[in-house]
């Protein structure tokens, strides 16, 4: 659905989604909410492209809500919302579907930091995942969003991006 929008960034973002899903399922083992998690991951960063903002969590959720509300239950939509809004949370998430949101939160931190933050995931597992699902320029794309949107105004970048992190 977003291939044209993402253009050259499509393979990198798709790889990020698959790596985060891989780590998530490692933490969860099983869940009745896998389809909702998969849907949330498709949208969790999409606001970077759809709304061209560094404060992209709310826009990402709005795009998910527009596209997914008819296909998921109210409980699943709440899970999708919590995954999208809190996937950059620095401390543990507490709330409905805590197990699933926490698994995704940890998984996204692993991938976004390229394993620097591992949340107990072994380096061997992280390396293996990168070998099977390569980055395809994803990290360069992320690093390029700030300058693309704000030139080299580092203060503007930091001011906007600060809103995506929660304690």
TrEMBL record:
**Known InterPro entries for this protein?**
HD_domain
Q: SUPFAM superfamilies, from UniProt?
A: HD-domain/PDEase-like
One Pfam family from the record: HD
Enumerate the transmembrane spans.
none
Annotated HD domain residues? 15-112
**Annotated protein name in UniProt:** HD domain-containing protein
């Amino acid at each position: 659905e977003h291939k044209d929008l993402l253009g050259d960034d499509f393979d990198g973002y798709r790889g990020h989604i698959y790596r985060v899903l891989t780590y998530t399922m490692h933490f969860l083992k099983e869940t009745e909410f896998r389809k909702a998690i998969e849907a949330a991951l498709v949208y969790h960063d999409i606001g970077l492209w759809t709304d061209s903002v560094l404060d992209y969590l709310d826009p990402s959720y709005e795009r998910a809500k527009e596209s997914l509300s008819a296909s998921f239950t109210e409980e699943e939509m709440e899970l999708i919302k919590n995954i999208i809004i809190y996937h950059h949370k620095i401390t543990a998430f507490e709330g409905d579907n805590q197990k699933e949101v926490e698994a995704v939160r940890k998984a996204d931190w692993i991938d976004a930091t390229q394993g620097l933050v591992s949340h107990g995931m072994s380096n061997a597992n992280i390396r293996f995942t990168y070998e099977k699902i390569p980055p395809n320029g994803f990290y360069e794309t992320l690093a390029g969003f700030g300058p693309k949107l704000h030139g080299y105004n580092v203060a503007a970048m930091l001011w906007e991006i600060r809103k995506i992190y929660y304690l």
